[in-house]
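Below sits the subject:

***
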Amino acid sequence: MDMALASKASPPPWNATAAEQPIPKRDKAAANDSTYLNPQAHDSVLGIILGGGAGTRLYPLTKKRAKPAVPLGANYRLIDIPVSNCLNSNISKIYVLTQFNSASLNRHLSRAYGSNIGGYKNEGFVEVLAAQQSPDNPNWFQGTADAVRQYLWLFEEHNVMEFLILAGDHLYRMDYEKFIQAHRETNADITVAALPMDEKRATAFGLMKIDEEGRIIEFAEKPKGEQLKAMMVDTTILGLDDVRAKEMPYIASMGIYVFSKDVMLQLLREQFPEANDFGSEVIPGATSIGKRVQAYLYDGYWEDIGTIAAFYNANLGITKKPIPDFSFYDRFAPIYTQPRHLPPSKVLDADVTDSVIGEGCVIKNCKINHSVVGLRSCISEGAIIEDSLLMGADYYEKLIKNSLPKKVAFLLVLGKIHASGEQSLTRMLELETMLRYSMLTMFKKLQWRQTGTSSKVELSQ
C-alpha cells in the first residue's frame, strides 16, 4: 500500500524510529480532522528544508555541527522535526540544503531516512544538497533565497505544483496539508505561515499587516513604539476567536512558506535575481509588485531554536506538568529519528522526578530533577542534577576510563556535579568541553609514556 494513502497512525516503512505512545485526549480531534488534497501532497509538493547559517548564537553547540543537527529531547535532532512534519503530511520528496559543519547532519539524515520512503513504489526521498562552487556560480550560499536559487535547476525538474520552504531549526508540530490547502483555496502565489503575538513578544519578530481577506499588505522588522501599534491587525480574519484576538493583535512570520512553482522560478530568476533572503527581500518584493501573498494562521506551540536560552527552554519545556510545551507522544503525528539499537535505560537506586531520560543511559544512586538526560549518559553515585540539560554522548567512554591509571579514573568517577539553572548552561558546556579535551590529552600523553607511541583518539561530535 502506498504510504501516502496509508493511515497516519501506521508505522513508518523506512528505517526511522518514532516515539509512539497513547495520544493525549486534547490531540485526538485534531488528528482525526484529515485533509485531502487534490492532487495529493506526495505527488504535488516538494519539501525544501534550509539547514541554516553558521549558528553563532548557539555556540559552542554549533562548534562541530550544524544547527539542525543539535540534539533535542534526549533522543532526537532538530532536523527530525521538519522532516517528520513533512512525512506526517504525506510529503515524501524532501531536500535539505546544508553549508556549515554539515557532516554530522548528513550522517544522521542518511541513517534515519536513507531508504524506502514513499511506500512500495519507493518514490520518496530525503536528500542532502550541500553548498558547492560551480563554473556558473563560484559563491557559497548567500542566504535562504540564494540557496534555493542555486538549486532551482534541480527543483524545477520535479513535476509538482508547490515548493514548501521550511527552516531546520524550529520546534513545532504542523499539518502542512492544511497549509497547502489554504494556499490553493485562496489562489495565492505565496502563503506565509503566521504566528499570533502579544505586544510583549511582537517587538522581537518581523511583523505583517493583512487586509480583510488575509492578504499581506505590509511588513515591519522588529517594530517599536508607534510603528508597532501601526502593525496591529484583526486576527479574527485568520480564525482566532474574539478573546484570543484581543490578547494577540499582531502576526509574525514563522519563516515557513508555500510558493507556487512557476512563481518561485519567476521571482528568483527574473524579478529578484540578486535577492538573497526570503523574509526581508523576496516576500516584501513580491507584495510590492502585486503578487498575491496570503497569511496562514498557526496557533500552536512554536519555538525558534536560535539561542542558548531558547535551546535550553525548549528542551526543559518537554518536562512540564501536566502538559508539556511540545509532546513527542502523539501517535498520529510521531517524530521519527535514527534507529540506534540502544538498550533500555537502567536506573539503580536513583531519585528521578519530572525528567526525560534518553535511550541507553545508566543512572546509579543519584538525584535528577526537572532535567533532560541525553542518550548514553552515565551518571554515577552522588551526582545531583537539577533544571539541567545533558546532551548525551555518541559512544560509551568506558574503554577510555579503564585505560587510565587508577588515580585519574578515581577523579572521573568520584566527582559530584551539581548543575543547576539556565544561567550556568553556557559555562557548563564550556567546562564539559574543557574536561573532555583535557582528559583525552592526558590519556594520550600517558599512553605514549607507557607504549612509546601515540594513538589517535577521535572526539565526539
